[in-house]
């Protein structure tokens, strides 16, 4: 049986794409470290100097700036370690319900889609890296808001334990994914066509899968049709 003459080229293309992702993650993360460190430092200095003179809302806003900068610092360090081939994972007990609501609130505020709804009651606490898993959720929920149908966006998150794993399902009522594209959505730098949409780098689902691999889990598209899509995330319990 003769070998497939296209196989070496496909392997080379995949390897080149992986290297491009690693260079992108390493460069972006490295360049962000310094400004993030300064934002966190100056926010802390302002809190120390002005805590007695600010009202409750102002204090809350300043603390939020410092916390978000510190979270972004941890995330960029994790990205740099991921690009270097040795992922830096810091697992802790995470309230999945609170994390999902927080990410959703940030995204709907940024996108100004007040009619969007999230159904996620009763999600458990899981042990994982909150920065990495929070970014996984952000990528999936962002896609649900971008690739929407004519109806108001609705996302449902459910989790169940099976054996030694958590299975987290994220469903939306979007336009669905054409069968011709379902094998490509996790490819680096590939973007699902959507007229009139400002396209990103095409790394959302790719990096989500990389993060989940670093966390010992994985992700796949479980179902998609004209009524919407459902992704399933597997994460180890311990």
Automatic annotation (TrEMBL):
GO molecular function: phosphorelay response regulator activity; phosphorelay sensor kinase activity; protein kinase activator activity
Domain Histidine kinase positions: 27-238
A biological process from GO: osmosensory signaling via phosphorelay pathway
EC number(s) from the headed UniProt entry: 2.7.13.3
Gene3D superfamilies per the UniProt record, alphabetical: 1.10.287.130, Histidine kinase-like ATPase, C-terminal domain
PANTHER family noted in UniProt: BACTERIOPHYTOCHROME, TWO-COMPONENT HISTIDINE KINASE
Pfam families per record: HATPase_c, HisKA
Top EC class of this enzyme: transferase
Protein name, as recorded: histidine kinase
CDD domains: HATPase, HisKA
